[in-house]
Specification:
Chain lengths: ~400, ~475, ~425
């Protein structure tokens, strides 16, 4: 790995993994655990080096696998620690057992998913299949577009996760290869400002494993006797409430971030040039950059096209999406992963669901691209715009369009 | 009230030789007559069995309650019932209170006499050539730890005669309340140690980890508290399946990293909570629900893996095997394991016979545990990095393995070849441990064979650098 | 007002055992034991030995203050109960103080019976029930040359032996036809009596005192047959009667307080144990019961366990006579009952005896069986374990095949049987 930068000023040039690591440093976690996996590896290496150099004061656990990585952090969180890890792909799959349990325990762990496609065929490249596959487990999921957003969102994630009305884990997702390894100039927030932004740690006020506050964590529920099934149901209901509460908290966290640090990101859904649009393409993650360039070019040609970008995938911002859909007459959804059950991309599926709450049902096309590290260039988005425009006049195909199939 | 060590009598081993009475009267009586011995072995006139008359040092002694002269008292320390010659009025009412003939009038001495256990070194036991008499000092455990609070709730829902419950209660009460306890899925939380429906099962913070991540969650807990300057014991009470099969990765990882954890593996040789299925610790030949008997199958076809030995090769700060049939040994090891968990990984493997899953009467649990050890089926040992492996008991004169096998329903079906296989396996293990303990090979201890620590390597490298 | 969850009135064997049993089950309930005297608890049974000098009066305390502290029990000396008000659940003390209780145990023991002998209230005489009695008697013995003992029970016999050893001329007067009636059979009693006679004690069984009168520093004891004895020490030892005067109608009392098999009186939350109760016989017949130290302990334990709600409590089985008695270097032991007058064929008596020789004392053993179960065993200079014999009677152990062995070797045979039963 490269030598760690110790910026004297607030600007540095780095990739997304290092940006995420700086976000972690600024958030002052108690414990970091990790296990290497491409393309996440350098992120953990940065953190190890930060600790070795005294830049970060945290416990580092180099666990023997991702399953243990998250388990270690669950223990630390229950003991009152702020925690962080990162993983992706097969690592996330292996982690699934404790991953599944983390939100149910209401532990505000922050984890980056440096998104990667799933094998087989064998591949080590980017793609969002990992994060999308676990979207229904109960973690808050935010997808970043830029390296700067990776850093900023990592810090914001703690504020969201540890909000007492939320208390849920957060995935800060950035695209493998394109964000993890793409090097750009970013600005580093001031530590004191971040400290003020995050406030005091208060991680296990609600559930703890601490001899000073002895309690049984997860006594058996269920069965027909006592408070069994009702108790379990109340837990699940509360968890869903926390999830819904997070929508407002995410918005507030972004608003305060913009006020303190002067950088604003759309917290849930970004509407790009949508005001007078006839149709729009829908994107998620780093591909939005190329998509916006193509939209700009199309606008220059006089086409009334816009772009909708999803930042917060879980909880799904239904109202924001419905409001955006109300502004256009057709949408084309570009997914970087596959929803096998619907023969489409998962964001397409989510869009259809949100459309129920929109004013009217409009034509909607699924396009799948960027799998296994494939690039989604302006060429691909020009096609996406073209295919979406066709919906205004013609029929709406039921088959997805595979954007990289001929690359 | 303190407990008293016991002179135990096994009539089946007694041949009536009278050596005990000779030894007693030699040191105790005025004239050396065996009739004055404080222990009396008597032949039952009908059954021909050998019977015993001896003071039991009762907990609520009737002899003391019946004494009008305050000449008898139960000592607060040690629990002996002592006799005060100056106060005794020789009224013999004490003998009316005793149904064991533990205190009786001696015509030769003109007073009542009773056993005083020779100040903790009973001569009768020493003199017994058949081990019919043994001196059980396990009361010292009660005296030392009896006042400690049992940190589990009463009425855990274990099976009748559950050995694991014994392990749970004894270990946690010693480890104490400044503990976070992990009980991965299995019999231990199954009997209610975490709790039900919002009610807690212990007085310490307790949780179900996943079956797979016990050592990892404890890693995070221990390290977080340590970071905050608090020394909290991170303790696991885990079954063999969770520890050695599906959870072995996290266990191995934590041991390799030297996490400061007290990991107690309660080995009942299978998945007993879910109905007695096979695990990696299930021994060869054993019936389980997934190694059933049929025309084509006769129990498990593989030997068990030796989990504690695997843990030793992690060079843990402490590794030991223990049995509830040998509680003093168990407590000694628990003590060492607890101390070791302050600076490294401590692994305590306790054999825990299962009345339900192994198919034996619930009253036989301790006997089964004892026979496992006495036949070398389960070998008791401990390992410390600087001292190597040490056997806790001699293993050179084991009882025949069948003495153990015949106690258990899960081995009832074994044919001669299967028994031979188990005997061979036990013999092989016995030889292996003899060698590991440095017996018969001229090797002092295992220390020489243990891998060098990272510390060793570092110092030798730096030495070379400085030369 | 002071109030205790458990209030134990009386401080001897029954009360002490009750306190132990209560605390064994109830770790937190408050307990108090009341003693009317300003001393630690002692046993009336030890008093003859205080008289003889065998026991030092300052070393007879059955329990000490640390024992009470260890059981978190208040020990209140100089607290004499003068009345029980069960309706209010209080006891009233002689000084007017009231003490409330949750559960009350009356274990006030017994007091000497003073026989209706003409002139007795006009002469100085001794009894032996308290430590003060013992010290007074011990002082008097130092100078007495002639003594008369009324009653050949244990107290009288002990005193007679002590007096005889002090070179005093002693006469024992017993109304009934043998010494130690109710405890020993006639043959054993005769051997005991003979030993006294041999040591110069005049034994007058089947004799009745008609009057006593003062004569200078001495008194004259007139007998029914017209004879008289001069005594400068008169000891009245004609038995004891329950100490129940203070209860005055608060409880049902016959020969003692009436209790059930859990030592409950007929009044709610009031138990009684020891010499103060009317003890039922284990044999369910007229066999004398009560007044025996091990019985008092058993009753105290039963009462204490029942008061505390200990589920392990078992019904008190009824009293079994028992005596262990040393006299002039001999040992007499008795457990159980003798053959009744109207015994049927289910009864059997085994017997052996041997006369005294130069090196051997006289020996005697009698075993009484009914349906092959032990009913009683009486021995002089033959050793056996009374506790085991008692248990064999209680358990109604069938001894049919062991009759001869039991007679020949009572100690070893019973020990072997009992050891076999335990395991």
């Amino acid at each position: 790995m490269s030598a760690v930068l110790k910026p004297k000023n607030k600007v540095l040039v780095c990739d997304g993994n290092e940006a995420a690591a700086w976000g972690v440093v600024l958030s002052r976690p108690d414990m970091v655990a990790g296990y290497p996996i491409t393309p996440q590896s350098s992120l953990v290496e940065y953190l190890a080096q930060f600790i070795a150099d005294g830049v970060l004061d945290a416990e580092m656990v180099e666990a023997e696998g991702e399953h243990s990585v998250l388990s270690v952090l669950q223990g630390a969180a229950l003991a009152g620690g702020r925690t962080y890890t990162a993983s992706c792909g097969q690592g996330l799959a292996f982690m699934f057992e404790p991953y599944f349990r983390t939100p149910n325990l209401r532990l505000p762990i922050v984890m980056s998913i440096v998104t990667r496609d799933g094998i087989s065929p064998q591949c080590v490249w980017g793609g969002q299949q990992d994060a999308m596959t676990v979207r229904e487990v109960g973690w808050i999921q935010m997808f970043c577009e830029t390296v700067q957003e990776v850093l900023d969102t990592t810090v914001m994630a703690y504020k969201i996760a540890e909000n007492h009305s939320v208390m849920l884990p957060v995935n800060v997702n950035h695209d493998g290869n394109y964000l993890s390894n793409g090097i750009v100039r970013i600005e580093l927030p001031d530590q004191d400002e971040v400290d003020q932004y995050l406030g005091d740690k208060d991680v296990n006020w609600h559930v703890a494993l601490d001899p000073q506050r002895p309690m049984a964590v997860d006594p058996l529920t269920g069965g027909s006797a006592g408070t069994g099934p009702a108790l379990f149901t109340r837990y699940r209901q509360g968890q869903c409430e926390g999830m819904q509460n997070s929508l407002g908290v995410i918005v507030e966290a972004h608003k305060e971030w913009a006020q303190r640090f002067g950088r604003s990101f759309a917290p849930l859904i970004e509407e790009y040039r949508l005001e007078d649009a006839d149709y729009a393409i829908i994107t998620i993650g780093s591909m939005a950059g190329a998509g916006k360039d193509v939209v700009d070019a199309a606008r220059n040609r006089g086409e009334r096209v816009g772009l909708i970008k999803i930042k917060t995938m879980r909880p799904f911002p239904i109202d924001a999406m419905a409001a955006a859909l109300n502004k256009v007459r057709a949408v084309g959804v570009v997914d970087r992963s596959v929803c096998f059950g619907w023969n489409s991309g998962p964001v397409f599926q989510e869009t259809l669901a949100a459309m129920y709450y929109a004013r009217e049902r409009i034509p909607c096309l699924s396009m799948i691209g960027g799998l296994a590290g494939a690039d989604l260039t302006e060429v691909h988005f020009e096609r996406a715009v073209r295919e979406t425009a066709k919906l205004l006049a013609g029929p709406c195909p039921r088959q997805p369009i595979w954007l990289n199939a001929q690359d | 009230m303190s407990a008293i060590n016991t002179i135990a009598f096994k009539p089946a081993l007694c041949d009536g030789c009278g050596e005990c009475m000779t030894a007693c009267s030699t040191v105790k009586s005025v004239n050396g007559s065996a009739a004055q011995s404080r222990i009396q072995i008597i032949a039952d006139p009908l059954k021909g069995s050998w019977e015993l008359a001896l003071c039991r040092q009762c907990g609520d002694p009737r002899c003391v309650a019946d004494c009008p002269a305050a000449a008898l008292s139960k000592e607060a320390n040690g629990g002996l019932i002592s006799w005060d010659a100056e106060k005794c009025v020789n009224c013999l009412l004490c003998t009316a209170g005793c149904v064991y003939a533990g205190i009786a009038f001696s015509a030769d001495e003109g007073r009542v006499v009773k056993c005083d256990q020779c100040g903790g070194d009973p001569q009768c036991v020493k003199a017994c050539p058949t081990q019919a008499l043994t001196y059980l000092t396990s009361a010292s455990i009660y005296n030392r730890w009896g006042d400690l609070e049992d940190l589990f709730v009463p009425g855990l829902g274990g099976c009748q005669g559950c050995n694991t419950e014994i392990v749970m209660r004894h270990t946690l009460r010693r480890v104490g309340s400044n503990t976070v306890l992990a009980t991965p899925p299995g019999c231990i939380p199954g009997m209610g140690s975490v709790g039900y429906n919002g009610m807690a099962g212990t007085k310490v913070p307790v949780f179900h980890p996943l079956l797979t991540n016990t050592a990892s969650m404890l890693t995070g807990i221990r390290r977080q508290f340590k970071r905050k300057g608090r020394n909290v014991t991170a303790m696991a009470l885990a079954g063999d399946g969770g520890a050695g099969d599906v959870g072995f990765q996290s266990l191995s990882g934590a041991a390799e990293r030297g996490e400061e954890i007290l990991f107690v593996c309660v080995d009942n040789e299978g998945y007993m909570n879910t109905g007695a299925q096979r695990s990696g610790s299930t021994p060869y030949g054993a019936w389980t629900a997934t190694t059933p008997l049929g025309t084509e199958a006769h129990g498990k076809v593989q030997d068990s893996k030796n989990m504690p030995l695997l843990m030793m090769w992690h060079r843990c700060a402490y590794v030991a095997t223990a049995s509830t049939a040998f509680m003093e040994d168990l407590y000694e090891k628990l003590e060492k394991a607890l101390a070791a968990s302050d600076h490294g990984f401590a692994y305590l493997h306790i054999y825990s016979p299962c009345t339900s899953g192994w198919r034996f009467p619930s009253g036989n649990n301790i006997e089964v545990a004892r026979k496992a050890v006495e036949t070398n089926f389960a070998i008791l040992w401990e390992y410390q990095p600087d001292q190597g492996l040490r056997l806790s008991r001699p293993i050179d004169k084991p009882l025949p393995v069948v003495e153990y096998l015949k106690l258990l329903g899960k081995f009832k079906h074994l044919d001669a070849a299967q028994i031979q296989h188990i005997e061979n396996h036990v013999a092989e293990q016995t030889k292996l441990f003899s060698e590991l303990a440095g017996i018969g090979k001229g090797v002092e201890r295992l220390a020489a064979a243990a891998p060098l620590s990272a510390g060793h390597e570092r110092s030798s490298v730096s030495e070379r650098l400085t030369r | 007002m002071e109030r205790y969850d458990y209030l134990v009135v009386g401080a001897s064997h029954a009360g002490l055992e009750a306190v132990r049993a209560i605390r064994a089950h109830d770790a937190t309930g408050s307990i108090a034991m009341l003693n009317r005297d300003p001393v630690l608890p002692y046993s009336p049974t030890v008093l003859p030995y205080v008289v003889s000098g065998r026991s030092k009066e300052d070393r007879v305390a059955l329990r000490d203050h640390p024992w009470f502290e260890s059981l978190q029990t208040a020990y209140l000396e100089r607290t004499q109960v003068s009345a029980v008000d069960a309706a209010k659940a209080v006891v009233r003390c002689a000084d007017g103080k009231e003490i409330g209780y949750g559960k009350l145990l009356l274990a006030t023991g017994a007091k000497p019976i003073i026989p209706p002998v003409s002139g007795l209230d006009g002469v100085p005489y001794h009894v032996l029930r308290t430590l003060d009695d013992a010290l007074a008697l011990r002082n008097a013995m130092g100078t007495a040359k002639h003594a008369v003992v009324l009653g050949a029970g244990l107290v009288g016999m002990h005193a007679a032996e002590n007096l005889a050893k002090g070179k005093c001329q002693v006469t024992v007067v017993e109304m009934r036809d043998q010494v130690l009636p109710g405890y020993f059979d006639a043959e054993a009693a005769a051997m005991i009596s003979a030993a006294f006679t041999g040591n110069g004690v005049e034994m007058l069984t089947k004799h009745r005192v008609t009057s006593v009168a003062k004569q200078g520093q001495q008194c004259v004891v007139k007998l029914e047959n017209g004879e008289q004895r001069i005594a400068d020490l008169l000891l009245v030892a004609t038995g004891v009667t329950p100490e129940v005067d203070f209860l005055k109608g608060a409880l049902d009392i016959e020969r003692g307080i009436i209790v059930d098999e859990f030592m409950r009186t007929r009044v709610a939350n009031v138990w009684a144990a020891g010499d103060v109760v009317q003890t039922r016989s284990f044999f369910g017949d007229g066999t004398p019961a009560g007044g025996i130290l091990p019985d008092a302990v058993e009753q105290g334990r039963t009462a204490g366990m029942d008061m505390a709600g200990d589920p392990g409590v078992t019904p008190y089985p009824g009293g079994i006579p028992l005596n262990t008695y040393n006299f002039f270097g001999n040992r007499a032991l008795s457990v159980g009952r003798d053959l009744p007058a109207n015994a049927g064929t289910e009864w059997e008596v085994l017997r052996r005896n041997s006369a005294a020789s130069a090196s051997e004392p006289a020996r005697y053993l009698k075993i009484v069986l009914r349906d092959n179960c032990l009913q009683g065993i009486f021995g002089v200079n033959v050793l056996f374990d009374p506790g085991i014999m008692w248990e064999l009677i209680l358990r109604r152990t069938n001894l049919s095949e062991l009759r001869q062995q039991l007679l020949d070797h009572p100690q070893d045979t019973a020990r072997a049987v009992m050891s076999g039963i335990w395991r």
